[in-house]
Specification:
This protein is an alpha/beta fold.
Length: 335
C-alpha cells in the first residue's frame, strides 16, 4: 500500500473537476453569511453533513444552493483562489476546470466579462503565488437552446487569451449531444477543442456522438464504453483520453462499489486513462484520495500511479512549453 502522504506529495495534473462542485463547505458558509442567505445548516459540522452525498436529487439540491450563494465577481475570485490553494496543497501542478458560466449569468446576473476577469485574477494568483496553473473549460449544459450553446462557444473564443482552453458539453446525457454541432464547429474553427462528458449515465451512443459530431479531444468519464467492443477498439486506436472519476461513478450509482469499477479493465485494454475527482467535497474525496483508493483497491504500485499523472500532463490543453514543464516535474519526482 502506498502511503497517502506520498500520493499527496506526488506531482499531479487534474483534467476533470468542476469549480462550483469544488466549493468547500466552509467557503459556502462564509458566502452565505456575507449575503445573508439561509442554508440547511448554519455551522460547519452541520453543513459538512448536508454536503455528504445521499442521492442525485440531493446532489442537485446542494449544487443549486452553492450557485445561489455566488453573488459577486469577488465571490468567484474567492472560490477559485481557495480551490487553487487546495490543489497546491496536493501538489496538483495544473488543473483544467469545468465552469458553467451560463448558469452564473442567468441565475445570479454577473455578466460574462466580469466573471472571466475575476477568474483570471485567481489564475494569476495561482501562478504567481502558488506556482500552479489552471485553465477553464466553459460548458454547454445539455438542455440549453442552440442559440445559448453558440453564445457559450462565442464566450470561449472571446476568453481564449484569458485562460479558457476548451468548450465543454455536460449535463444529463439523455438530453442529447449532436444538436449542438454548430457550437462545436465555431469553437474548433477558432482554435479551441471540445471536451465532452459522455458515457457515465448513458451508454456508448453518447460517446460515439461526442467523437463523431463534437469531435471531442477528451471524454469526461467514458466508463460505459465497455458496453460496445467496437467503441473500445476505436478509443484504443485513437488513444482518446478518458477522464475517469471513480468515486463520482460509485456515488451516482454507475457501479455498485469501487471493486466493481472497470478502471483496471480499461487500463488492461490499452485505453488512455486519467484519474480525476469531479466534484470532490460532494463525493467525499480529493484527487489524492482517488489515487489512494484506486491504488489500494486494484493493487497498483507507485509507477502505475505516476503513469496517471504522466497521461494527464500529456493530454492537458496547454502549450508545449508548459507541457514539458509538467512532464519534467512528474518524471523527476521520487518518493
Amino acid at each position: 500500500m502506498i502511503p497517502i502522504e506520498t500520493l499527496r506529495k506526488m506531482p499531479k495534473v487534474e483534467l476533470h473537476v468542476h469549480l462550483e462542485g469544488s466549493i468547500r463547505p466552509e467557503t459556502l458558509l462564509k458566502l452565505a453569511r456575507w449575503h445573508e442567505i439561509s442554508l440547511p445548516a448554519d455551522d460547519l459540522p452541520g453543513l459538512e453533513r448536508w454536503y455528504t452525498f445521499r442521492d442525485f436529487s440531493h446532489f442537485v439540491e446542494v449544487y443549486i444552493a452553492i450557485s445561489q450563494c455566488i453573488r459577486t465577481p469577488e465571490d468567484l475570485e474567492l472560490i477559485a483562489r481557495e480551490f487553487l490553494a487546495g490543489q497546491a496543497a496536493q501538489n496538483i501542478l495544473h488543473s483544467e476546470v469545468t465552469y458553467t458560466a451560463a448558469t452564473i449569468e442567468k441565475h445570479v446576473g454577473i455578466p460574462f466579462d466580469e466573471q472571466i476577469s475575476a477568474l483570471k485574477r485567481a489564475m494569476d494568483y495561482g501562478r504567481e503565488e502558488l506556482g500552479i496553473s489552471m485553465s477553464l473549460i466553459l460548458d454547454i449544459v445539455r438542455g440549453h437552446s442552440l442559440d445559448r450553446a453558440v453564445q457559450i462557444a462565442e464566450w470561449c473564443v472571446e476568453a481564449k487569451e484569458q485562460g479558457v482552453c476548451a468548450l465543454g458539453i455536460a449535463g444529463e446525457e439523455w438530453r442529447g449531444t449532436a444538436e449542438y454541432e454548430p457550437a462545436y464547429r465555431l469553437a474548433r474553427e477558432c482554435g479551441l477543442p471540445v471536451v465532452a462528458h459522455a458515457g457515465e449515465t448513458c451508454g456508448p451512443e453518447v460517446i460515439w456522438d461526442s467523437l463523431n459530431v463534437a469531435q471531442a479531444v477528451r471524454i469526461g468519464h467514458g466508463v460505459r464504453c465497455q458496453e460496445d467492443p467496437a467503441l473500445v477498439d476505436e478509443l484504443r486506436k485513437r488513444q482518446v483520453p478518458l477522464e475517469v472519476c471513480p468515486s463520482s461513478n460509485v456515488c451516482l450509482g454507475v457501479f455498485p462499489s469501487l471493486v466493481d469499477h472497470p478502471i483496471k479493465q480499461l487500463l488492461d485494454q490499452g485505453l488512455y486513462v486519467t484519474l480525476n475527482s469531479d466534484d470532490p467535497p460532494m463525493f467525499g474525496t480529493t484527487l489524492t484520495d482517488e489515487f489512494a483508493r484506486v491504488s489500494e483497491t486494484f493493487n497498483l504500485d507507485f509507477e502505475a500511479c505516476r503513469s496517471f499523472s504522466v497521461r494527464a500532463a500529456d493530454a492537458a490543453l496547454v502549450d508545449t512549453t508548459r507541457k514539458a514543464e509538467l512532464r519534467a516535474e512528474i518524471d523527476s519526482w521520487q518518493p
